[in-house]
Task: structure prediction
Amino acid sequence: MVAVIPDSAVIEEIGLLRQWREDVACVFARDPAARSRIEVLLAYPGVHAVLLHRVSHRLWRSGWYLSARILSAFTRWFTHVDIHPGATIGRRFFIDHGAGVVIGETTVIGDDVTLYHGVTLGGTSWNKVKRHPTLGNNVLIGAGAKVLGAITLGNNVRVGANSVVVKDVPHCCTVVGIPGRVIQRKGVKIQNPNGIDLDHHLVPDPVGKAINCLLERIDQLEARQEKLSDKHCKTCDADSVCHPETEAA
Result:
């Protein structure tokens, strides 16, 4: 599994103003509440965080590490979104609502990715190596989800709200649960041509399904036991154990 991942140098060649325009324009395709560009520019903290990260990342790439960290710290204070300036983020990146999102230093994010509030793209090591996730194109991560470690999420992956993902996920899969489990078969692409699929209510519930299977099995076993009891146990030798009060009377 190889995700299509952007390179920092290639992204910078696009031009900062063009990146900003794309980051603002993509909001209208993913948030029906957006009404105008001026509203998005003034009232969307997720957009503010992305726009300022574009600047801090360029400072980081140029070796201005302290300046990049100071701008990143200001952005976190201003938007409640914590993006390390070393993180590589592709085009048309959108953070909806924004509050509580954390993106680590070695994170790599593809194009057309959407995150909701409370998402963490975190590390699992203190070593100075690649320790944060890599996200392919058209990935959508639900509110409160945690994606941890140097793992890779393929293109068109969806992560359900509050899931915890600690293993690689193939292309075109849906992951839910703690720890995250793939619940949609590989190879089924998201139907929306823009790669955005917000049908969270259609995500299956593997725990509920397992409980239903157990209940059905219990009903079958009880029915079978009842038939066997009628055939062989008309007089039960264990009445004294099950109903000691009857014998005592």
The two ends are 73 Å apart (CA to CA).
